[in-house]
Amino acid sequence: MPDLQFEKRFADLGIVIGVDEAGRGPLAGPVSVGAAIIPPDFKHPLIDDSKKLTEKKREALYEELSENPDIKWSVCLVEAKEVDEVNVLKATHLGMARAVKELGVKVGMCLIDGLPVPNFPYPHEGIVKGDSKSLSIATASIFAKVTRDRIMRKAAVRFPGYGFEKHKGYGTKVHLKALRTLGPCEIHRRSFQPVAQLSKPLE
Predict the structure, then answer these.
(1) Which pick of 60, 147, 165, 173 has the fewest CB atoms within 10 Å?
(2) Are 7 and 133 a contacting pair, CB within 8 Å?
């Protein structure tokens, strides 16, 4: 379970922010990046890497955490069009910087899930599997994941037939079959295979 070891390690530098993303791999929808500042003595028995939690538990945690006045957080979305323009890795890094900026605080240290980010505008530490090690990263992951899941459920109503409410844009068999039948929709990432192939005009 994630704890506060990294937050305590960098506490002397000032405000410590956990940062994590959701939706880097899907064929459709935005990349969602969460940033979270939690109290120095924060504890929660249920918080874990958002991917290990059921959708119902994530939703309940989101409601609880978002209503906690001691937690400061933000979520930044990088839409499919921008993902196609700059590539998904850079889009993720841009989203991370924007999410941190949106908090409007003087940053002591950012704890980022994964590897260090080149040219990141804030001091940071990359923590591989950080969402299962750092409580602030795990909290950020819940904000990012739930926000994105809600968006994809709305997308399922707007773009029926793809099954976005179930797979959230990931390349499942159901999604790939729908893509072949319906073709890409507005929120598909044209730079991703197999969307790219289906987006090409017939000769």
Answers:
(1) 173
(2) no
